[in-house]
Design goal:
Layout lengths: L2 H23 L4 E6 L7 H16 L4 E6 L7 H10 L4 E5 L22 H9 L1 H8 L6 E11 L1 E4 L14 E4 L3 H9 L3 E4 L5 H7 L4 E4 L1 H6 L8 E4 L4 E9 H4 L4 H35 L3 E4 L2 H22 L1 H15 L1
Parallel strand pairs: 1-2, 1-3, 6-7, 9-11
Antiparallel strand pairs: 3-10, 4-10, 5-8, 5-9
Helix pairs in contact: 2-10, 4-12, 6-11
The structure holds 2-keto-3-deoxygluconate (KDG).
2-keto-3-deoxygluconate binds next to strand 3 and strand 10.
């Protein structure tokens, strides 16, 4: 090998080594508090721990994510405020409680928007979901990835719900935004907005008769202990969103931000797979736990679609034609 080639190769090696060393210098030892609302033994808990492990591996343990479940750092709304103020670094929570910050997130509370997870993934991970995340920046939040909460179903203690009329008079807890409230008021329920962290005791004490959540949540939150009837409606597909405090995020190096983003994508794929693999098992467990399950017929779901159409039209107008057109185009593209 010529002398010149040896010098060139030595220089190249030196550059790579110093770049590696630079990357190591670019990653500081940091503690990251990651809060979530479900129990530790839930799909959120497993995905949070997976995220933390991936990040530890990528940063040689320097980026230490500590996960806090069961709303121990606060409700979704409280954690959102803590991130905005820089008092907490990261969280995962519902897009429903973001509607007060970015109103267009209300579209994910529209009933019967997605037919399946494939459509949801395409819209959330594509331009539409990314564009909504960008709107969080000016509100002091950084949207990183979407996880899957899933298709929501109804539970209550009064009577089986097999058709929209059966909702009449049921005190139903809903997530805290106007879309969810209007949807269930229009279907005849007595809708009561409430933080998820207060829900179990509200069901136990009869403050509310019922609620609606994916079967995995119903099972991992032990709602079967305080709810008798489960109606399979899949009436809304709910995302979760993983976010960081912008005040904190902007102080990270691009290497650190990249490590967090990469680990977050891995956690998203893990969480969706885990959630989907667990749904059938959770439903079997709920039946074994004594819940009376009603499969609501397609004809009755079509009637529900008709009843809530005016609500979707009202909020589509509020969110603007551009948002609605972009959303419908994204769903159409995912369907083809
Ligand atoms: O903290 C738990 C919430 O993020 C999530 O479960 C949202 O589906 C939700 C609900 O009903 O509040």
């Amino acid at each position: 090998m010529s002398k010149l080639l040896k010098i060139v190769m030595a220089a190249a090696t030196l550059t790579m080594v110093s770049a590696g060393a630079h990357a190591a210098d670019d990653v500081k030892a940091r503690n990251i508090r990651f809060g979530y609302g479900l129990n530790e033994d839930s799909v959120q808990g497993r995905a949070a721990r997976y995220f933390a492990d991936e990040l530890a591996k990528a940063s040689d343990g320097k980026l230490k994510m500590m996960t806090f479940g069961g709303a121990s750092l606060g409700s979704d709304s409280q954690m959102q405020s803590a991130l905005q103020g820089g008092a907490q670094e990261m969280m995962v929570g519902s897009t429903a409680t973001l509607v007060g910050i970015v109103k267009e997130y209300g579209v994910f509370d529209f009933p019967f928007l997605f037919n399946n997870e494939k459509e949801a993934d395409a819209v959330l991970d594509g331009d539409f979901g990314t564009k909504l995340m960008k709107k969080l920046d000016e509100k002091g939040l950084v949207g990183i990835v979407y996880w899957e909460n899933g298709f929501r179903n109804l539970t209550n203690n009064s009577h089986p719900v097999a058709k929209v009329e059966d909702l009449s008079g049921i005190k139903l807890r809903v997530m805290q935004n106007q879309v969810a409230l209007d949807v269930f008021q229009t279907m005849g329920a007595n809708a009561v907005p409430m933080a998820f962290s207060e829900l179990f005791s509200a069901l136990e004490t009869g403050v509310v008769d019922g609620q609606e959540n994916p079967v995995n949540t119903i099972e991992s939150s032990k709602f079967y202990e305080v709810q008798k009837y489960l109606s399979l409606t899949k009436h809304v597909y709910s995302p979760w969103i993983v976010m960081a405090s912008k005040k904190w995020w902007d102080g990270l190096s691009s290497t650190e931000q990249g490590m967090i983003e990469k680990a977050a994508v891995a956690s998203r794929d893990f969480e969706r797979k885990d959630n989907r693999a667990g749904t059938a098992k959770a439903l079997d467990a709920l039946k074994a736990d004594g819940m009376q399950v009603t499969v609501v017929s397609d004809a009755e779901l079509d009637r529900m679609r008709e009843v809530v159409k005016p609500v979707i039209e009202k909020f589509s107008k509020q969110y603007g034609e551009e948002t609605s057109n972009e959303l419908m185009a994204a769903i159409k593209a995912a369907r083809n």
